[in-house]
């Protein structure tokens, strides 16, 4: 499931794979991950925080 989420994020230009470093970079935050699962969980939390921030405005 995490791999599917990451593939969708790559397609949406929200994640950039860096094969030579074996990492995935979450473009909106600039955070690098070496695990698709970690990235998928992080992105969900990041989206939740972003959505909460929009509600506060």
Q: Could you describe the 3D structure shown?
A:
This protein has one domain (2-56). The chain has helices spanning 2-11, 36-56; strands at 15-18, 23-26, 31-33. 54% of the residues lie in helices and 19% in strands. It contains two helices and three strands, in the order αβββα. The longest helix has 21 residues, at 36-56. With 57 residues, it is α+β, with helices and mostly antiparallel strands.
How big is the Rg? Answer: 12 Å
Overall 3D geometry? globular
State the end-to-end distance. Answer: 33 Å
Kindly name the structural category: alpha+beta
* Mean pLDDT over the residues: 91
Number of domains: 1
Helices and strands, in N-to-C order? HEEEH
Helix content: 40-55%
Name the poorly predicted regions: none
Strand order of the largest sheet: 1-2-3
Strands, count: 3
Beta-strand percentage range? 15-25%
Task: Outline the biggest β-sheet.
Answer: 3 strands, antiparallel
- What is the overall number of helices? 2
In brief:
Helix content is 54%, strand content 19%.
Question: Which helices and strands occur, and which strands form pairs?
Answer:
Elements: H1 2-11, E1 15-18, E2 23-26, E3 31-33, H2 36-56
Antiparallel strand pairs: 1-2, 2-3
Helix pairs in contact: 1-2
Keywords summarizing the entry:
57 residues; alpha+beta; 3-stranded antiparallel β-sheet; 19% strand; globular
């Amino acid at each position: 499931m995490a791999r599917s989420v990451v593939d969708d994020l790559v397609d949406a230009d929200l994640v950039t794979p860096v094969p030579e470093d074996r990492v995935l970079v979450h473009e909106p935050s600039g955070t690098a991950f070496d695990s698709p699962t970690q990235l998928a969980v992080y992105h969900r939390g990041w989206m939740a925080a972003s959505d909460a921030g929009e509600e506060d405005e």
